[in-house]
Design a protein that fits this description.
single chain; about 160 residues; alpha+beta; six-stranded mixed sheet; 6 strands; about 50% strand; globular
């Protein structure tokens, strides 16, 4: 999957950079649209339909969750977060590999959440995300969540 930049044209290099930026953007849109709990922000299920591919998979073995299909993923995200008072999601340190209309991204992922009034949790994880380039642009085709550690605070 490694591409030697000197062996591809400037147009191909530009396309790779544009694809990487589009992949980062769709990942950031995912995080933005599952944030909730301040300034009236709630999960934006309409926007999430523009983030995932129709046949996407979302799974977390540790949470014993595997959802297949856009509708099921959105329904599960809304259902599983009904009791969350506050959540903010952040992605960093992406390693993105593009192969034509398919791509993979390995991300560090952290979430700050509040499930009870005076208890804030920080969860450090990673996600392996697969992407596909559709006629509507890059979309998330699968998410696999891996837990790292949970830090519980009283704030």
């Amino acid at each position: 999957n490694e591409i030697v930049m000197e062996r591809i044209s400037i147009e191909q290099r530009l396309q790779l950079l544009e694809d990487k930026e589009a992949i980062k953007d769709i990942t950031y849109q995912y995080a933005l649209n599952i944030n909730q709990g301040w300034n009236g922000i709630t999960i934006n299920s309409n926007a999430l339909s523009e983030v995932f591919a129709e046949n996407a998979i979302w799974e977390s073995p540790r949470m014993n969750i595997r959802e297949v299909g856009l509708g099921n993923i959105i329904k599960n995200l809304v259902t599983e977060t009904q009791t969350v008072l506050f959540a903010m999601h952040s992605y960093s340190n992406p390693v993105i590999k593009i192969n034509g209309n398919l791509a993979t991204g390995n991300w560090l992922f952290w979430v700050v959440s509040k499930m009870e009034k005076d208890k804030t949790n920080q969860v450090f994880m990673s996600q392996d995300i697969e992407y596909t380039n559709t006629t509507n642009g890059w979309r998330i085709n699968s998410v696999r969540l891996h837990f790292g550690d949970i830090v519980k605070n009283k704030i």
